[in-house]
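Supplementary Methods S3. Input chains for the assembly prediction are listed below.
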Amino acid sequence: MTDTATTPPTAPATHRWRRRLLLALLLLAALIAAAVTGSRWWLQQQGIQLQGLGWQDGGATVVQWQWRQQDCVAVEGRGLRIARWQPLTISLQQLKLRSCAPPGPRQLPTPPPAGLPPFTLRIASLQAPALPALTIAVTQQNERWQAQLQQGADKLALGYRRDSGQWQAQGTLAAARLAPQLLGYWQLQARGRWLPGQLQARVQADGKQLGYQGEARRGDARLLATLHNRQWQLDATLPQALPLAAGWLLQPRRALRASGDLDGVHSLQADLLASGPQGKLRLQLTPQDHSLQRGSGLLQLDGKNLHARIPLQWAKRQLTLAAGEARLPQGVRLSWPQAWQLPLSASGSSRLPFRLDYQQLQLASNDGTLLWGDGRWQWQGGLALSGRHAGLRLAGQWRGQLDPQGAHGAPLQLNVSKPQLTLAISLPVNSIDPRQPRLNASFAGHYQDWPLKGTLAAQQQGNGWQGSLAASSRLPFYSKGGALQLAANWRGSDGKWQLDGGSKLDIAEGIVGNVLLKPLSLQTASALLTDGNSAHGQLTLNSGGAVASRWTLPAASGTLQLDGERASAQLQLPAWRSKLQLTANRHGAGGSGSVQLDTPLTAAMSRGLGVTLQQGQVAGKLQWQWQKQWQLDGDVQLNDVALDWGGILANGGHGRLTLAARPDRLQLQSDGPLQLAQLDVGTLLQEVSLTLRSDLKDWQLGSVHAKLLGGSLQADSLHWPSSAFQPVTVQQLDLAAVAALQNDPQPTVQLTGRVGGTLPVQLLPSGIALQDGLLRNEGELTLRVPASAGVNAMAQSNRAVQLALDMLSELDVNDFQARLAMQQSGLLDARVTLKGVNPKQNRQPVVLNYSHSENVLELLRSLRIGDEISRRVLSRKQAAATRNPTPETSP
Amino acid sequence: MKTAARWMAIGLLVCSSLAMALDVGGAKAQGLVGEQPDGYLGVVKATPEAVSLAADINAKRREAYDAIAKKNGTTLDQVATLAGQKAIEKTPPGSYVKAPNGQWVKK
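Predicted structure tokens for the full assembly:
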């Protein structure tokens, strides 16, 4: 007998169970695969596509999904996650709803299906046409729906019972959500019924404390709207005046009644009256039949600078504004040559040709079309600007689209011109966001001979604008170089603008005439403010100086202070230790100011002069004015001036000069005497003193006085150039000093005593002439001709000469007269009479009449007197050089 | 003797300025600069290089003229004028010189 209960299973039985288990698993896998495949097929048939199926934190996830209706993506979602299955809890990061409704009558929305299991749905960002992005949370349980919609601080709570169809909503909405400039808020209350094929609603919106930014007044408004299935009615009432922009008020009244269906407006009755600083606007709409299907109205604008009467009518769901025009504030005239026809429908388009006239400017569009639908609008077409403004001829064009997101299309092209100015401006519009406009314009052209090229960037900042300006040009009076670069950051509003500190204008090295101007830069040290008429701020100036073939101006730096109607500048030239201060005050179209100069005189300043400034100090203060003509007045103080013309030296110069300059004349005059301690022209003049009056053509010297040869020289007045013979008086000239000019240790002639007299001189540019000059002895003179080898030789050569020399060897002269005349050529005729006695020959009386002709320039040359010292020498050398170009080695 | 010394100095100066730098000769050959009756180089065709070169040469010439004038008791302008005449004479044909009427002419 065998105990089967304890007998282990046989091998065939074990294998059978394994096969059955394996078969069951395979069947289960096949069922799952079939379910998944079937589900995907079903979803695809429904237009639903899923991407990125997965599992995360215990929940199924879908990265992206969409629901297509035919070829239109009606719903698109991202980041779907099923957090719980019981109750069903779904979250979505983003859900986009699009309108895929086919053309034709709109249908009532279908309520959600009944009998849904409980669920919770949270959407972080719901985007629907004509609505801002919303955060939404929806729960449903036992046919009761609750929804919370939120955007920022604005909330709307909705409740809905699927079984009875009852629904209600309440919430608040800030007016700024509608437009950023609006103030106040709206309270919403709504209720109704929503069942398949049935939708009823009564919506009441109460506007509280409504206003407009910048306007102090506030007002309330009420909108009441009802919907009965496809039919709706709207009733708007203003219990108080409602502030609008720019000081306008919408006057209290029952302002608007309208009705229609889901596809458009059926009737409209309005009586809107707005008043503002410019006048009044009234819109009256009057239905013409009981069904309100047609009617007419009138839009009226009345005011000092506002006028329009625009008849309008509507019929067959189309509003027609008759062709007309409107006069708008600031002289703007809007006209439309053809009637505007606007379909009264939720979507449509209308061609709106118009023309705006402002002074001599016209902005016109012949093909502009307005399109609207799904809560959006767009204008598309071309704009043409033409005419004149502010002396400029303007011509521009643009083609593209305008919508709430901004402008799109080709860059705006604007040509600005006037005599000597041509500027082409290009402004790309695609980057312009109306909520935060940014403009980047480029321009190119020329003004007179100035080429202009650059870019201008601008963006709105608060109530103003800011941006940058980069421009290049070339200074037209530079024959070479002179490139100009401007780099500036700017900001401002309401006509008040500023260049930020650090804005810089650079002028590159270049040639003007035959002068090389080194680089120059002007930079704003602080913000430079301007209202278009005046400027405030500080600029720094750095100049590399200037170089010409004969002179150099060293580097200069300084500051320029602008203070409205006043300006001042301080410049330093470190290499010369010079300081220059300038002030300017504007008076109407002219101005006045001062120029103050304080500088030592240095040889470095003399490179372009025929004189070398050795030392001294110049301080000047000049006042300038510029009205119908300019004038410059002031004085210059010279101190301790020393200079030389090469071999002619002057030092110890002091004096004050006054300057009066006008466009047609210039007057330079000494204020008190001009003095020179020494003037060495070969013969030393000391304590030179004179007054000066000149227009740089005529030079009048007065009270001329100098010490000369132990005596003095003086003239009451000397005029150059003048054909008149003007007396110069010399007194007490020491003949010993004259004899010393021979510069000979053993002079042939020894003289003592003093002479004086009058020398009438004619001062002309071509030279100096002397007529009827007379020198007399002033006291007793002595003449000695000491014995020397030369004298002895002369005496031995001729008996008469010996006799004369004996008589003249020692002569006491008590009467000396020298009559002098000199031509411009320098030929001097001297007729001399000496009367005296020879003390060594019994005081025999001696009378000597002596005539002499000598070219005085030669004489002066020999004495190293005067500027003409080497004229003869040079002319002689020129003649020699012509004959023989090699340098001479002999005099 | 003073005149002789002056002449020698001027002659040396003119020669030295001619030999001072080939740049001067090159600039003259290119018609950028030319000799003037006042003893200084003038700019015929203004370029930054020509102006700088003329300024440099003229500064050196003025120093030399001044020294000669002081040594000989004459004026700087007179020495410069004399040197100018010599320099114009020594200017090779084809180079620019300034005529008395102020016009640049090719010698």
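The helical segments of chain B are 2-20, 22-29, 48-72, 76-90. The interface with chain A takes residues 1-4, 7-8, 10-11, 33, 40-43, 46-48, 51-52, 54-55, 58-59, 62, 65-66, 68-70, 72-82, 85-86, 89-90 of chain B (CB under 8 Å).
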